Amino acid sequence: MAGLLRLALVRHGQTDWSLHGQHTGRTDVPLNEEGCGQARRLRAQLETVHFDAVFSSPLKRAWETAVIAGLGGRTECCPQLMEWDYGAFEGRTTEELASERGGTFSIWDTEVPGGESLREVGKRADLLLEHLRQRGGSILLISHGHFLRILAARWIAQPPELGRRFPLDAAAISHLGYEHDTPVICSWNQ
Q1: How far is the CA of 160 from the CAs of 106, 122, 168, in angstroms?
Q2: Stated pTM of the model
């Protein structure tokens, strides 16, 4: 089982947009002061762990998390790790969108005008997992909340919609691995 893929997932640190609950897909916002502090705290948790490879979304908030956490020199850019493209919902809060739609809104249940569908994000996660499984080893991924939640659902062969059941805090660490030959979530939102 040494060649099997093991994944550590890190959601980027806090941004002003995430602090205020704004859907932050492709807008390239930086970490705020708290987010930088969260990334510094990650450094202590990650510096004693060996990773065969480290990949980050190219978006500033993920890349800054990698650099501040001490991983910048060995981190490779991976566009597949970008957040869900929220299209017309970009920058808007769930509350704003709910008030416009009769009181309810969930990104998990809604067509995304001008952005990616949930199925498209799931397919992107599948393609990335296929590539990483061929590579094998212990790999750290630094990415975004909704994308990592969908990736975890696909890891355990569940539909992307199951990602709604996996809350993920800023700068949280999660681990995906195997029990025998079955892909499992080893730890979540640590």
Answers
A1: 14, 5, 15
A2: 0.96
Residue 116 appears among annotated catalytic residues: no
Cα gap 67→17, rounded to integer Å: 20
**How many Cβ atoms are within 10 Å of 162's Cβ, its own excluded?**
17
Give the CA radius of gyration of the chain.
Answer: 16
Question: Per residue in 75-93, pLDDT tens?
Answer: 999 999 999 999 999 999 9
Q: 54: helix, coil or strand?
A: strand
23, 64, 83, 116: the active-site residue: 83
Q: Please confirm, yes or no, whether 12 is among the known catalytic residues.
A: yes
What is the amino acid identity at position 158? Q
Q: What pLDDT, on the 0 to 100 scale, is given for residue 1? A: 43
Give the list of residues 6+ apart from residue 8 with CB closer than 8 angstroms, or none: 46, 49, 51, 138, 139, 140, 141, 173, 174, 175
